[in-house]
Structures are given as C-alpha cells and as structure tokens.
Amino acid sequence: MNISRRHMLILLPAAAVAWKSVLAGTSESSPNYKMSDHWWGMLIDIPKCIGCGNCVRACQAENDVPNGLFRTWVERYHVSDEDMTSPEVISPDGGKEGFPVAKEDQGKYFFVPKMCNHCADSPCTQVCPVGATFTGPDGVVLVDQTYCLGCAYCVQACPYGCRYIHPVKKVADKCTLCYHRITKGLTTACCEVCPTGARQLADLKDPNDPIHAFLKTHSVQVLKPQMATGAKAFYNGLDGSVR
Amino acid sequence: MRVSKDVGHLFRFAGLFVLAFLVFLVVRHFVVPKTFGQYGHYRGAAMGEIAARSVKFAGHESCEACHTDVVDKEKNGKHAHVNCEACHGALAQHANDPTVKPVLPDTAVLCARCHTASAAKPKDFPQVDPADHSQGLPCQTCHQPHNPGMDAPKTDAGGAK
C-alpha cells in the first residue's frame, strides 16, 4: 500500500498521540507504580462469604464513608424452592453489623457482597458532562472530585447502584478500589479484613495472579451481563436470582 | 482593482474570526488544567491525587514485620489465613508510631460476629450458639484467638503483646 503525503499528514499526529499514551503510565505519588502494567478487578467468592460485615466496616473506616451510605455492602438472599425468581433480600445498614440469625427452613440462604464493578465500558463515565469521572488506564473507575459538579447523572446511570452524592462535599463519591492502597502495593481494605477470602483483589494483567487459574476452573459470572458494561467484579457461585 | 475593493470587508471579517480564535486559544490555555487529556477526557493529575491519600489499614505485612511471635502462633492454626486487622481494626497509626497503643478487641463481640450460628452461613463454616456453647464464659477461657483449636497450647489470653 502506498501512503500518500495526505495520509501521512493524517497518520503522524494520531501516532504521536497514541505513543504519548503508551509512554504515560506513571503516577506522581507512587513512583514504582506503572498504570499500564495493571488491569484491576475483584473476585467475589459467594460460597465463602459468612456475612460478618468486616468489609463494610473496613471500607467506611478506610475511606471516611458517611454513615448510611456505602461503597460496598452485603446483601442476604433467601430464595424459596417454590419461587426462585423473587428472592427475599435484606441488607440491614449495609450488613455493617452482620445479619439477624436465620432459622433453618425451606429454600436457601446466601450472602452477596456488592461494590463498584469497575466496568471497562462503564455507563457512569459515559454520561459525565464534564469529564470528572473516568476509567483510568489501569481499569479503575474514579471520580475527580475537584471537577465534579454534583449533577448526579452518574448516580442514575450506574446499573449497580454503587454511587452516591457525598452529603458534605456535594460531589459524586464511590469505591476507588482503594486506589491509594493498590498503587502502594497493598490490597484493598475490604480484601485485607475479609476473614474467609471471599473477596480477592485481582490484577488481570499480572500473569502470576491466581485469578487466571481461578477463572479457568470455576463458573464465574458478572452482575447484569446483558448491560455489556464490561464489569470486572467476578462472582463465583452466583445464583440466578441475584439482581 | 474593483474586485479587491469589493472583498475588503471579507478580509476584515476573516480577521475578526482569527482574532476570536486566538482569544479562544489563550483562554483555553489558562482554563483547561495542564493534565486534562493526558490519559483521556479527564484530568490526569486526579489519579495521582487519589493515589496520594493516606492509608488507615497498615496491611498484614507491616504487622508481621514486628509481631513474629504471633505469626508463629497463628501459622498452624485455623486462623492462619485471617489477617491481623480483620480482628484488631485499622492500625496504620500504630504501625507508623508504635507508641500509639491499639485497643484490645472484646472477644464476646468479635468472635460472635463470625461464629454465631445462622442457617444463612456456609454449612462448613464453624458456628456455635454463643449462649448455649459457653454458658456466658468469655471465648478466651478455652480458645486462644490466634490459634483457636482446643488442642492448641493455651499460653495466655489471646497472645496479645
């Protein structure tokens, strides 16, 4: 193929822009962290969750989440044998202080921890009118709170209900996947305190991450796959009744 | 001659456009943040600012660096996979400055949080009815939280140092 001068003039600036974003991959505060080396997600292993609420409390402590609002919360499902499609779901105070004791009866119980799915094609970032929320090069959906107007379009757009307007700052707030921790080589607060390993931070670009072996050998789902959000919170043992 | 005279007003008009465009560029230069568009349609520096927030949970590696005796106690027990701050709470302040004394958790609340029997919990998870199981005795009378098995040597109440 011959590249004319006209095509060359079109291609050169595009290549320059692309190369700039390839070279970019450093963040100021964590000199050893390279954004382009990571693609973050979360593995949530439902059969391991005991509903203790450790993750909810740790998240609120780590991130100063206001009372009554949640970046992560735990739901308890009770699905009866007769009606699999209308489960009884409870989440008292987000499951922060655990759940009432369940008596043995018909049907089944299980806990579902919920959080931002850090979608690759996130509806919440697409509706932002000012570019205040975005999916970073490392796959974490963040809010630039100095830029956010507080219009709450993103709060409505999130299919998983993971965003809220901060009552004091009046801007959108959400799970950062503990970005201030993972860039320093730590795991998220919720994963750090989970006593059963029901939540595990996953780096899909790290070939040594156990997530790859897990995904190969387990039936793993994401929430609302029909919405094509590219969700990266992977649920093992997810029941069909979970919405 | 006549033609150039007729198009004179067009040049003036074009000049206005060029001037307006230059004003736009100057205003844009001052209004748009430096790092906007660095990675995409957002302010790139926001990522560094979020990453710079301070941590409150130190992470188990920090704890294990000093508390090697507890690690030894825990490693063969059923709580080997439970990280320190799952029970002891956020302790980055203590990790940064050991003179900040952590509060010893109350086992009556702590143990019950995970181990109170409920039909909702996975069947293979160890669960008891606290009232029936210990008749009100504190858990650490029999169990050592760092290695809770009954066959584990019970040296002190929880091994907190």
Structure notes:
The complex is a heterodimer of chains A (243) and B (161). By secondary structure, chain A is α+β, with helices and mostly antiparallel strands. Chain A has 7 helices and 11 strands. Chain B is built from 8 helices and no strands. In chain B, helix 3 packs across helix 4. Chain B is rod-shaped and about 110 Å long. Classes of the chains: A alpha+beta (243), B mainly alpha (161). At the A-B interface, helix 2, strand 4, strand 5, helix 5 and helix 6 of A face helix 2 of B.
Query: How many structural domains are formed by the residues of chain B?
Result: 2
What is the ordering of alpha helices and beta strands of chain B? Answer: HHHHHHHH
Q: Helical segment tally of chain B?
A: 8
Assembly state of the chains shown: heterodimer
Q: Mean pLDDT across all residues of chain B, rounded?
A: 88
| Cα shape of chain A | globular
| Strand/helix succession of chain A | HEHEEEHEEHEEHHEHEE
Number of helices of chain A: 7
Determine the strand fraction of chain B and express it as a percent band: under 5%
Strand order of the largest sheet of chain A: 9-1-11-10
Distance between termini of chain B? Answer: 99 Å
Q: Can you tell me the CATH topology of the domain at 40-119 and 177-236 in chain A?
A: Alpha-Beta Plaits
Uncertain regions of chain A: pLDDT < 50 for 5+ in a row?
21-28
Strand content of chain A: 15-25%
Question: Rg of chain A to the nearest angstrom?
Answer: 20 Å
Strand tally of chain B? 0
Percent of residues in helices of chain B comes to 40-55%
What is the terminal separation of chain A in angstroms?
51 Å
Which class best fits the helix and strand makeup of chain A? alpha+beta
Report the mean per-residue pLDDT of chain A as an integer.
90
Low-confidence stretches of chain B: 156-161
Characteristics:
heterodimer, A: 243 residues, alpha+beta, Alpha-Beta Plaits, four-stranded mixed beta sheet, three-stranded antiparallel beta sheet, globular, B: 161 residues, mainly alpha, 8 helices
